[in-house]
Amino acid sequence: MKEVIWEVPESRVHRVLKLEEGVEMFVRKFVWFFLMVPFFWSWVMTSSVDAKENPLQAQVLDHAGKSYSGAQDPSYLDYDLALRKYVADRILKRFGIALDPKIYSGFDLLDIEALFKCKKSEESFDHFLKIFPTHP
After folding, report:
1. Backbone dihedral region of 65: left (phi > 0), alpha (psi from -120 to 50 degrees) or beta?
2. 95 near 86, Cβ under 8 Å?
3. For 67-112, how does the pLDDT look when each residue is reduced to its tens digit (9 = 90+)?
4. Higher pLDDT residue, 49 or 128?
5. Using one digit for the tens of pLDDT, what is the confidence trace for 8-26?
6. Residue 35 and residue 23: Cα distance in Å, rounded?
7. C-alpha to C-alpha distance for 99 and 96, rounded to whole angstroms
8. Rounded distance between C-alpha atoms, residue 104 and residue 121, angstroms
9. Is the Cβ–Cβ distance between 86 and 57 less than 8 Å?
10. Which pTM does this prediction carry?
11. Whole-number mean pLDDT of the chain?
12. Whole-angstrom Cα distance, residue 120 to residue 122?
């Protein structure tokens, strides 16, 4: 009996392999998406729960996504004051340094906090506070 060998054109083999790769890639993306959705959802929920526990943080988050017409915009001034109070409270809790939120801008307080985090143990806090202008 004669042995029959089936020959498949090479282009068909490539198409089948590409189709298998495409299905495999789709399954990977599909699984990755459904693994990441619960992670991000829990992160969003945790952020909102944290904001409810800290009223100062909630005041800052109330301004999220808003735009302002300038530095004298009343909404911006409310946001800046809320940010100042929140960051000054964080600095007090973490470093034990009480800063008056009325004499530093909100963004200066954020910079001060970042510098305090990087400070060496032998450096004094006053050294970093001299860098920033105060606004009485």
Report:
1. left
2. no
3. 778 878 888 888 888 888 989 999 999 989 899 888 888 888 989 9
4. 128
5. 556 665 666 676 777 787 7
6. 18
7. 10
8. 24
9. yes
10. 0.54
11. 76
12. 6
Cα gap 38→68, rounded to integer Å: 34
As given in the structure block, the two tokens for residue 79 are: 């946001």
Token couple for 72: 């004298």
Helix axes 74-95, 106-118, angle to 10 degrees: 20
Instruction: Classify the C-alpha dihedral 50-53-59-60 as positive or negative.
Output: negative
Question: Tokens standing for 61?
Answer: 């988050």
* 3-state DSSP helix/strand/coil % of the chain, to nearest 5: 65, 0, 35
Residue written as tokens 């985090």? 117
pLDDT at site 92: 92
Residue 82 CB neighbours (<10 A): 21
Helix (H, G, I), strand (E, B) or coil at 101: coil
